[in-house]
């Protein structure tokens, strides 16, 4: 009797987590869209090449209102990969798929096809926090995304560059690009820089653009923090 030996590797499923930008429109929608346009104008390319989810919980839109909202985003070249908070009755097949909150996932090894069905992987342990150190400057067009903890930049952050951190951001040089701290929901996160010339700053989802910030703190060593729903800038000297 001949026994066939399987040489192909077992089927493998890999879990991978991506940082998605969540847009959460509020009413009146016209005002929210104007604010969105201001961000796009002050930070060109901010929405390019990144996964974006729309949380429409606050809108509670009808089907026609949701179609209008999605069309308004398409006109601005903002592509939505998923919808959160929309009632099932207002979703159409040509709309982005409904999504719920994401969770970290690890590798899942599938057994041989002839074996038992795949188990469902789950994890109740939070991912450990780590710090990321960049020994140099971040050039224009670069995007540093580290959702597991703080990010420290020993050099400068150029105009057109972006730093996204789950924790705080420490910049030993000039901040001329965008700094987004507390991206996973940390209101205690802060931004520190030696020379403040930012295009955009954000902490725990609240943001200010260069136009909002004015010139009062420009060129100074700055700490950015939250006080309730307000972004607070203070000098370090």
From TrEMBL:
Cross-referenced InterPro entries: CAP/MinC_C, MinC, MinC_C_sf, Septum_form_inhib_MinC_C
Pfam families membership: MinC_C
Keywords: Cell cycle, Cell division, Septation
GO BP terms in the entry: cell morphogenesis; division septum assembly; regulation of cell septum assembly
Name recorded for this polypeptide: Probable septum site-determining protein MinC
Gene3D superfamilies in the cross-refs: 2.160.20.70, 3.30.70.260
Subunit (UniProt): Interacts with MinD and FtsZ.
HAMAP family per record: MinC
Task performed by this protein: Cell division inhibitor that blocks the formation of polar Z ring septums. Rapidly oscillates between the poles of the cell to destabilize FtsZ filaments that have formed before they mature into polar Z rings. Prevents FtsZ polymerization.
UniProt record similarity statement: Belongs to the MinC family.
Species for this entry: Microvirga subterranea
Record domain Septum formation inhibitor MinC C-terminal: where: 134-233
Gene assigned in the entry: minC
Annotated SUPFAM superfamilies: Cell-division inhibitor MinC, C-terminal domain
């Amino acid at each position: 009797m001949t026994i066939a030996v399987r040489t192909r590797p077992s089927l493998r499923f890999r879990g991978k987590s991506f940082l998605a930008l969540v847009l959460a429109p509020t009413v009146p929608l016209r005002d929210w869209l104007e604010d969105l346009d201001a961000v796009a104008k002050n930070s060109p390319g901010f929405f390019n090449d990144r996964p974006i989810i729309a949380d429409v919980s606050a809108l509670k839109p009808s089907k026609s209102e949701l179609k209008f909202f999605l069309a308004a985003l398409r006109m601005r070249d903002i592509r939505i990969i998923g919808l959160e908070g929309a009632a099932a009755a207002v979703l159409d097949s040509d709309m982005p798929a409904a999504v719920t909150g994401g969770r970290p996932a690890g590798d899942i090894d599938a057994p041989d096809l002839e074996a038992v069905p795949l188990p469902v992987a789950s994890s109740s342990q939070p991912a450990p926090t780590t710090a990321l150190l960049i020994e140099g400057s971040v050039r224009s067009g670069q995007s540093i995304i580290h959702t597991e903890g703080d990010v420290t930049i020993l050099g400068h952050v150029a105009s057109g560059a972006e730093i996204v951190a789950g924790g705080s951001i420490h910049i030993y040089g000039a901040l001329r690009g965008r700094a987004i701290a507390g991206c996973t929901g940390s209101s205690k996160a802060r931004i520190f820089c030696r020379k403040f010339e930012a295009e955009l700053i954000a902490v725990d989802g609240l943001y200010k653009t260069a136009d909002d910030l004015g010139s009062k703190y420009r060129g100074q060593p700055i700490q950015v923090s939250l006080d309730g729903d307000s972004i607070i800038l203070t000098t370090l000297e």
